[in-house]
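ATP-binding protein
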Amino acid sequence: MAILELKAQHDALQKIATMRDPVKALAEFVWNALDADTTEVSVELVRNALGGIDAIAIRDNGCGITLQHALEDFENLGASWKRKTQRTRSSRVLHGKEGQGRLRFFSLAQKAVWTSVYDNAGKLKKLTIEIAAGSLHKSTVNELGLDEGDTETKTVVELAPLKETFDWLAGEEARADFTAIFAPYVLQYPDVKILFDGHPVDPQSSIVLSREIPPHSVVCPNRTVQDLSIRVIEWKHSVGGRKIHLGGQSGVVLGSVPANVVAPGFEFSAYAYAPFFQEMADANLLDFDGLNDVDYLKVVEHIRDQLTDHFRSRQAERSSELIQELVNAGVYPYKGDPKDEVEKRERQVFDIATHAVSSYSKEFKRADNSLKRITLGLLREAVRHNPEAIHNILHHVFNLPKNRQDEFSSLLQKTNLGNIISSSTLIADRIVALEVLKGIVFNPKHRESVKERGELDVLVQANTWIFGENFHITLPEAGLTRIMQRVSEELTGKKAKGTLRKPNGKVGRADTFLGRVVPHQNQLHREFLLVELKRPSLKVTRKETDQLEDYVNAIRSQPDFMNTSTSWNFFLVTGEYDDAVKERITQKDRPAGLLLDKPTHLVWVKTWAELIRDCEARLHFVQQKLQIEVTAEEIEERISQLKASILRSNKATAAEEMDAANDEADAAAVTRQAGE
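Structure:
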């Protein structure tokens, strides 16, 4: 008999031996068996007469523990024979090298006893090793004679008595957890048989899908983590909690963390392998809860992002069959293939939402095609223009259970798809608007026929961002009286009375008026924009700039605006201007196009080309990234739509002008009667 004493204090060994997860503690003994070239290892839960678990035994048919290894390894912490090699005798990957796994029994039992039969120069030998929980620094080694059944090398580890009731180890969750840990190893080495409480680890029968993300690098705050590979296994049944298992080499799990990934309807395990995790395990850091190493946290965040992308794609795949049914029924709101990356992402989110609706809404399943067409159209508009509203739509329209609403909302939050689609759609709409505007003002087909009060007016009303992001209120082709009334409402809440006239006495009117309250520390401050649109074929002269100044003076001279905190931006937009105007708007130390620069107002003269180029410059970078293209057919279609809307609006405008003319005639009649 030999008594070996580790060169370490009991308290220190206790910290190393303690594991928060009993299944992982048992897994350490299985890894030791696998490192000993076993082809079959079994975790047996020893039950008493009442069915309770009294002890745990781990049996394997490996090469056993030799007396030499026992005397060397059990006396020196960190001196395992595995440090001298990378693989087992049969070239399988080794799990441990630190000689600490044998102490993990401390989390389960009061004592651990190894009984091993090994080969010594062609003869079988047998020994036992015993360690008590109360004296982890001491190991008792005894050589024994062979029994009748000792015909092959093997090792049995007996853990007893147990420290507490571990009956839950016999449950489905513990077995699923155990399976998740060893599934990659069994897939890599299919000749190895691993059993837990009589149930073999058979991942092939339980796997729905297995996908590998090739090795790549992750840039962290203090280092670059090389050769990170990720494997995702989706299971048919629950695995007792979604986890990311961390390993140093393929097939070997060293630690695990909660997945914290939104994946509705999926049961999965993820496996991430990198030399970095081996370093962490060698430093005994992977067993710590709340590890805050910045590089470690960065890598884990990256793994979770990769998993999120994977399950977003899987959700879309699952919904493909349903989507085809909707297409065949004529209720799917999209036609053909996605025209760009923006619509591709938009459809992906839409398909996921539709799959969720179809899975959990009985009303939607029973609805006829006409109702499905309406509701899916509503959902598409929400995804395209207001993804934040999807939560309410899923609740009020489809009656989706709250937990499924939350899952979908979390999916959008974690992937930022809502923000991506909202911003991408906005940019795409603006690019289309600019292309249509260029078609109107530059294409000879439209340039000579377009009028201020026509396609230009309608297009600008719908795209006031052209003049600046802070302007959004538009009033098309309004008389200066209505402009004054609108501005007066903004400032005082009351409509102004009377008719506004230009200095020459004529009633003034502007083509388009845009206004918006600009955020300011003084809540009474207002900023407005007045735009005079000219047809593209017109060359502006001093006459038109004088007309613009008339508008400026007429507005600013009104008592409604006197002694108020108000600023103005006045624009004259045209096809081109003559040399006299060019000389006035291209002066030294002034921005090009600035006609007047006053404390309370700015007056600009811009060509359509200059205005469009300014807008394109703001959108160019994002357009390149989104690869948005606009076809000639789409431009012509938009122009046709504009013309159709003009026909409708002209009828309304004509009626308004008739009413205004009648009002002036009535006023003139009253004046004549008063004179008489």
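The chain has 20 helices and 22 strands.
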